Amino acid sequence: MAVGELSAVAVLVLGLLHEQPMHPYQMHQNLVERGDARLVRISLGAVYHGVERLERDGLVGVVGTDRTGNRPERTTYRITETGQAAFARRLTSFLGDDHPTYPLFSVGLAEATDLPRDVVTAQLERRRAREAGRLADLESAYERIRAQGLPRRYVLDVEHDLHLMRAELAWLDGALAEIRDGSFLWGEPIPAAFVEAYRAARRHAPQAEADDLTAAL
């Protein structure tokens, strides 16, 4: 199995099985309880599908099947040596390799000037209120789990997300303040001086530099 084909859900599943064998329903419960739905979209069906694929590719193996009362049979899985190697390689890639993302918010910002200022302001305010609520919830969960004694190395993802969320809120506060007080000019055409400078750069710069400038714009 190519390392690149291991999805984020598969990595999370292998991470659980790295701790101990368990059945898919238990995996799903653990992922939800740990808040991993904040990282990727997790459903019970996705977990079952992921485990089936991991078994097919030899990354997990069946330990046994049991039934409790009237519940359906549950198959417990363990991670194989091949799975441990694939897990380590993919996890290493997640940490150090470039995995570009293309957030829709950035697209919205890129085209925001095509909307009236009051519409942009209202939507940014709506976004800020929502993100502030998420930040407060995540801060509370982080403080609670740390107070219970969980070492920081287990919540590096939470610390990173908290940092990004605080930075985004700070940026939103600044942008909204400037839009409200008129620091951001809205609706005016691109200055003629910029258009002339841009055209001159395209005429005189090497083609590669011109392409870079175009891409940046």
Automatic annotation (TrEMBL):
SUPFAM superfamilies: Winged helix' DNA-binding domain
Pfam family, one: PadR
Top-level taxonomic group: Bacteria
InterPro entries: Metal_resp_DNA-bind_regulator, Tscrpt_reg_PadR_N, WH-like_DNA-bd_sf, WH_DNA-bd_sf
Positions of the Transcription regulator PadR N-terminal domain: 13-88
PANTHER family, per the entry: PADR-FAMILY TRANSCRIPTIONAL REGULATOR, TRANSCRIPTIONAL REGULATOR PADR FAMILY PROTEIN
Name of the featured protein: PadR family transcriptional regulator
